[in-house]
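Blinded run. Sample ID left blank on purpose so nobody reads anything into the name before looking at the predicted structure. Input follows.
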Amino acid sequence: MDYQWVSPSVIDVLSEESDRSRTNLDTLEELVIESVGRNLADLLNTRQGSVPHLPDYGLPDFSRIYARESGCIEFLRQSIEQCIIKYEPRLTSVRVVVDKKNKNQADLSVKFLIEALLRVPSERTVFFKTMVQDVEEIKIRPM
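Blinded prediction complete.
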């Protein structure tokens, strides 16, 4: 199979993380999943309005949203889902759900599960877990 049409993102090319000698990933699919994960982390940690030529790139500023307020978790869920649909073309059929496992009243974090169809190099369902702990950083990892 020839996968020459799949090229790394500009961020992957410029970052140290794209150095294949440092990673034990051995398949193109794993490399693409890792790249998508990095892109999702960058995307979800960017606030709308901070990229002048793409004013809706990233998530809205939710620093003033109180995590227990009615509807705010659903607002975050929808915002994450729409952001991924618009700005991560390697994923289709994106679905974001609230992870209700390990819910602790003292824990102010909100966890989301992202399920999507990875389009390249072959169609495959992939899962990512993301955690909104505070307004400074959203963590994401493949499952």
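Unblinding after everyone has recorded impressions. The radius of gyration is 16 Å.
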